[in-house]
Write a structure and sequence with these properties.
Blueprint: H1 2-42, H2 46-60, E1 63-68, E2 73-76, H3 89-95, E3 101-107, E4 129-139, E5 142-152, H4 154-204, H5 219-268, H6 274-305, E6 313-317, H7 318-335, E7 339-344, E8 349-353, H8 354-371, E9 377-385, E10 388-395, H9 417-423, H10 429-439, E11 443-449, E12 453-461
Parallel strand pairs: 7-9
Antiparallel strand pairs: 1-2, 1-5, 3-4, 4-5, 6-8, 9-10, 10-12, 11-12
Bound molecules: adenosine-5'-triphosphate (ATP) and magnesium ion (MG).
């Protein structure tokens, strides 16, 4: 469109430029001749008029005619049209509209006049193009007739048409190039989009192994990368969910199997000792307790996962939780003759979920007591550092091998499967700790050396007011 506009106005401008000179020249000579011819015509000196027209027409390279006010030819440098009528807008504009001079370009033999401002109307070069210049003949201030000068302008028309056809060719080339580039570009842009769409569709059908090629640069590349990362994450999530379900089923099956054996013993040995039977029943009872614990732990984890649990924030002193949990667990540690020392250097007043943080402290301290041998030592330190409360629980128990350390916060992960089973752990405690601490925007870590002991550190933002 813009090319069309530019080409059209360019041809118009070039045409105007070509004609302006010619027109000025023709007008000047016609006006000058009109002044000479007017008295001759007014006084009916037709022979002198004819001579003037013939000689001047020869000099100017065109035809000269004198018309009376009715538009009839009275004299003609070619002496051919005398007496006939000339129907031209340039004649009418003088005789009817009262102009003194006019100019126009026409195709000979037709009514077509030249319009330079149209790009797609082809100029017919086979036809004769003629420039007409008319000037009024005046005598005593009255228009008595007009002088008409016509000259062929074929050379100019040819230049104009060659320009027009060249412009049209350039137009077609430019349009074709633009179309091709647009097609190529749209293909280049949409192809990775289409690949990505297919990838998303496959993923929607449940295939989590889809990856799309990362090509090109910019947004498309980033989109493909993001898609691949997302698909990888989904796959991992899917795997960990499967793992979780199988671990959970396994954990639930173990106590069930134990109970089944105990119950079968009771059923098939009706003559069993009352004392032994009571032992068996109390074993079943403790397995049921264990099942209960596992299920409530699982429910805690699942409810945290679904993000439906919000933090129930209130203001309290974190130090109170620490002393309270230590007091509650001292029943167990006293039995194991363990020495728990509390070092609280700040009360750490904070705005957080009291119940959830109580569980965090409980699970960590419970582990320390459970895994530290009898007579061991446990240090609990609470300090405040800037806007964080830092709790560390150190024991001199068996420690955790380096290889296991990255996994102990995973669900169901236990370092020593046999020993933990005996102590009653399911491997959910620390993963619950991890989740709860993350919910508070904090972090939990472990430093441990095998045979020497472990330190669990929890950092929690205080979030006051
Ligand atoms: N203080 C510690 N010293 C040595 N090992 C530890 C200590 N705390 C945790 N562990 C190891 O990390 C594992 C995971 O701990 P976690 O609390 O998640 O599970 P658990 O104690 O086995 O079971 P649960 O806490 O669910 O009853 C434990 O099985 C144990 O092997
Ligand atoms: Mg535990």
């Amino acid at each position: 469109m813009s090319y069309y506009a530019v080409a059209t106005s360019l041809i118009g401008l070039v045409g105007d430029y070509l004609f302006a000179d010619r027109r000025a020249q023709d007008q000047a000579s016609t006006e000058k001749l009109a002044v000479e011819a007017a008295p001759l015509f007014a006084n009916a000196q037709m022979e002198q008029l004819q001579t003037l027209l013939t000689t001047s027409g020869g000099e100017l390279g065109g035809r000269l005619m004198v018309l009376d006010i009715s538009g009839k030819v009275q004299a003609d440098s070619y002496s051919a049209l005398n007496g006939s009528r000339v129907e031209l807008p340039e004649v009418a504009s003088i005789l009817v509209d009262g102009k003194t001079v006019d100019y126009g370009v026409h195709q000979l033999g037709t009514q077509q006049s030249l319009s330079l401002w149209s790009f797609f109307t082809p100029i017919n070069t086979d036809a004769q193009w003629v420039g007409y210049c008319s000037a009024a003949l005046t005598a005593d201030g009255m228009t008595v007739g007009l002088l008409l000068f016509s000259s062929p302008i074929q050379d100019m028309m040819q230049r104009l048409t060659s320009l027009q056809s060249r412009m049209a060719m350039y137009f077609l080339i430019a349009a074709a190039a633009a179309m091709t580039i647009a097609l190529i570009l749209s293909h280049v842009i949409t192809k990775p989009m289409a690949t990505l769409t297919r990838g998303i569709q496959r993923m929607g059908r449940g295939d989590l192994s889809v990856r799309v090629p990362v090509k090109g640069s910019g947004e498309m590349r980033r989109m493909a990368e993001t898609f691949n990362v997302m698909s990888e994450k989904l796959k991992m999530l899917d795997q960990s969910r499967n793992q979780f379900v199988s671990n959970a089923s396994h954990e639930l099956k173990t106590p069930l199997a134990t109970m089944k054996i105990l119950l079968e013993n009771i059923i098939y040995q009706p003559e069993m000792d009352a004392e032994v039977r009571t032992d068996f029943l109390s074993d079943i009872n403790s397995e049921i307790n264990r099942l209960n614990l596992i299920i409530s732990d699982l429910l805690t984890l699942v409810s945290m996962d679904s993000k439906s649990t919000r933090l129930n924030r209130e203001t309290f002193k974190f130090a109170d939780i620490v002393t309270d949990v230590a007091r509650r667990l001292s029943v167990v540690s006293d039995k194991r003759r363990q020495d728990i020392k509390l070092q609280i250097s700040d009360s750490c007043e904070m705005y957080a979920d009291f119940a959830k943080l109580t569980q965090v402290v409980y699970n960590i301290l419970d582990n320390a007591i459970k895994y530290t041998p009898e007579g061991g030592q446990i240090r609990v330190r609470l300090i405040r550092s800037g806007r964080d409360a830092i709790l560390s629980v150190t024991d001199n128990g068996p420690g955790i091998p380096k290889a296991d350390q990255p996994h102990i916060f995973d669900r169901f992960y236990r370092v020593d499967k046999a020993r933990s089973r005996e102590t009653g752990g399911t491997g959910l405690g620390l993963s619950i700790v991890n989740q709860l601490v993350l919910m508070h925007g904090g972090s939990v870590s472990v430093q441990s050396e095998e045979g020497k002991g472990s330190t669990f550190t929890v950092e929690l933002p205080i979030h006051q007011g």
